[in-house]
Amino acid sequence: MKLKFSIISLTSCSGCISALISLDIFEDFLEKVDLVYFPFIMDEKRIEECDVFLIEGCVIDDEQIKLLKQIRRKARKVVAFGTCAAFGGILNLSEDINGEPISNYIEIDGIIPGCPPPLKILGNSLINLLENKKIVLPEKNLCYDCPLKENIQKNFEISIDELMDEGYKTEKVIPKCFLEKNILCLGPITRAGCDCSCIKLGIPCEGCMGPLKQDYTSTIINFLSLLNLSDDLRKYKSIFFRFSKPNL
Amino acid sequence: MGKVIDIEPLTRLEGHGKLTIKLTDDEKVDKVMFSITSTRFFEKFLEGRPMEQAPRITPRICGICPVPHHLASSKAVDDAWGLKIPKTAEKLRRLMINAKQISSHALHFFALAAPDLIFGPTADPAIRNVVGIIKKKPEWGLNALEIMKIAQLFIKDYAGKAIHPMNSLPGGVARPLPEEIRDRYLKKMDRLVELTLWTVDLAKTVVNHYLDVIKTLGVTELYNVGIANNGVHDIYDGTIRVMDPKGKIVEDTKPQEYMNFLGEYVTSYSLATHIFYKPVGYPDGIWDGGPLPMLNVADKMKTPIADKALKELREIVGHPCHMPLVNNWARIVELVEAVERMKELLEDPDICDTDVKLSDVEPREGMGVGCVEAPRGLLIHNYWSDSKGIITKANLIVATNNSVGGEQKVMETLAKQIFEEKILEKIKIPDPIIPT
After folding, report:
1. Is B63 within 8 Å of A13 when comparing Cβ atoms?
2. What residues of chain B lie within 8 A of the CB of A170, using their CB?
3. Among residues A58, A23, A92, which one has the least CA distance to residue B163?
4. Fold held by B44-425
5. B70, B196, B316, B377: least CB-packed within 10 angstroms?
6. ipTM value for the complex
């Protein structure tokens, strides 16, 4: 028996499902599953019983909460697909509305983080799901994979007065830890697995993979205690919440 | 009380939508409401943020067309801060937007539109989708996926990520194109051209098969909007052109002046505003954007095979063309141009030049407009910054806004055709191209 899969988008950009369709194993995935609900490409409008429900996007209204509860009743496993569903995502920048993770309303059976999930993480997670296993994710922070970690000095006081590397102004990016260059980098509080694609372009981590722990509050407090933020930066709204907000 | 028909969710759509049709007791169309049911708050939460971050925040508006947002945003910051980017940086941005055009148009054609045309509109919905195409006609499905993947992977390899790339910055791009990546993708270009020409033939077969249906269903004369560069089709840069319903170009203006002729109307039923041509007013001036309007406002295509394809299209459906179903063919004409442009740009002797960003970018007070053509219509980003370069206001007119008013009008036409004129009983729907 093939596993029955359903895929839905809540408040989102459809980037995660777009990543799924561009995945190199997408054809194999289609071969191995019975796709029963996926309104982005299919006309079926009813939500039926299924084995795995992938949910993209964050929650912003009551209709979506009702829908989530309906999904939970119908699906054997519910997976938060992408950083919006797992942690609220980009809407965390908003002060007017709460973009919430789906786990605030229903129990979930796993997350596939990323904005969108890196192809390797997405591919491996789908394989885990197909084999009826738990999704296995990297359990280290981004610094472990960072190409700039070699030059880091262990004991230093971190003053932060820039959000962007001078690299966007100058010719060459200096291969040195952003934090040491007084530039905010969210690598220390962000899950590894993205292949450091921003850092390799000279852009500090903005945290799109989300935090390692659902309890982001303690992580962020620890991180903040290490930093002396400049007055200018203190004024910017929610610089640490680019993709996930602590529950305060 | 007449009948009310609700279609929700609308499927095979980027984003969230709902269609409501209210009929009177005697089956006349009383009201049609095409609503966009999702809102995203980006304009508001950009306020208070450093403007150089906008190009990495705004792609999250749309994961199907992140590159156009990335670039419209970069161009808006360039404009606000008076930055003239190096020539190679512009070429690299063009390379990115054309690669994205390829993957988005291929996705739209094969996954969203083609299933109805290939299996026929009355086929079983369980099969009438891209999964059905892959199962029933594997070589077609695999070709489609191959087109998408070559283009997506190019963006990933060059710009860091295929979806939500971060390579474009105020003053240029972060990274020059490594020769190794250029060479790798140059090798794939002949295959991509071959796949694209096959797609053109498939699109022509489909159009000829359904020509009577296409010439009848939903035909609505509207204003059209798009970008042209000295009259030539261009998705990265140019003037905003507005065409009146009879085909006359009534506006050919720098994007910076969009406020003078672009009006925004808030409907009672949709979260997306309708855009209209201000001198004419609402609703008569409602305009439509997207592939067919882009072709309608252009004098010609930029590349030879695409221009030939445009001429063929015009011979069969005329110019201006107001048949909404021709958008699918127009999309393929644009796909051809994007593939030819991608090849030309990769062959450009300066494309691997390392002078790709300005070294003297300073945040300052300013107002800037960035305008590109996204796969589903005109896209405008407009930001204001204070003396520290912090965004004080943002105005985003996205592709959905520029086409949803037109789509509303087309739905009204279709509802009247279907319920009042009983057109589905009168026109002959041809046998499916592939029987299910």
Report:
1. yes
2. 359
3. A23
4. Cytochrome-c3 Hydrogenase; chain B (1.10.645)
5. B316
6. 0.94
